[in-house]
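Q: What residues go here?
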């Protein structure tokens, strides 16, 4: 084996390593994009009407349904969510997320007791959404609310379970 063979062999080996490294870098681009894209993506949010203002009675808490902020064409029923609306006065509304702040189970309003009850681990919330008993450590999450053209609207977005 002469020195020319060795240098050609070395050159080809380095070229192969270079191609392999470039191929690996190219193949990793989609994987890195998939892993890090959620960090730079803003969370979807949208205002949704939940009913005419006059349909809510002062002092009552009622359930409403709405479409989530970013429904996909194939989402079906999973694109729907619920909330509890309490009309406090002529102009004041409080809209609670239906999800318990412990692990996200849907809470139920018990009008006779004026409490929200969570069926999963016995979480209890007052009519203002504060924790009354059980494992939840945070009050019920509230949606932002506005009245537009006589409709009560809530801001829908992924709400934290804390
Ligand atoms: S999910 Fe509600 S108490 Fe655990």
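A:
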């Amino acid at each position: 084996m002469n020195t020319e063979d060795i240098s050609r062999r070395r050159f080809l080996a380095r070229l192969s390593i270079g191609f392999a490294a470039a191929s690996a870098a190219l193949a990793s681009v989609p994987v890195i994009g998939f892993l890090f894209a959620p960090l730079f993506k803003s969370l979807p949010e949208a205002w949704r009407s939940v009913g005419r203002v006059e349909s809510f009675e002062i002092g009552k808490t009622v359930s409403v349904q709405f479409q989530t902020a970013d429904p996909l064409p194939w989402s079906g029923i999973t694109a729907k969510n619920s909330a509890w609306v309490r009309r406090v006065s002529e102009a004041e509304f409080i809209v609670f997320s239906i999800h318990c702040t412990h692990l996200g189970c849907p809470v139920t309003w018990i009008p006779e007791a004026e409490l929200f009850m969570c069926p999963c681990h016995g979480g209890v919330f007052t009519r203002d959404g504060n924790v009354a008993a059980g494992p939840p450590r945070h009050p019920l999450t509230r949606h932002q609310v506005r009245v537009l053209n006589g409709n009560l609207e809530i801001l829908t977005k992924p709400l934290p379970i804390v």
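A: Context that may help when evaluating the design: The first strand starts at residue 46 and ends at 52. The pocket of FE2/S2 (inorganic) cluster is lined by residues 100, 102-103, 105, 118, 120-121, 123, 134-136 (CB under 6 Å).
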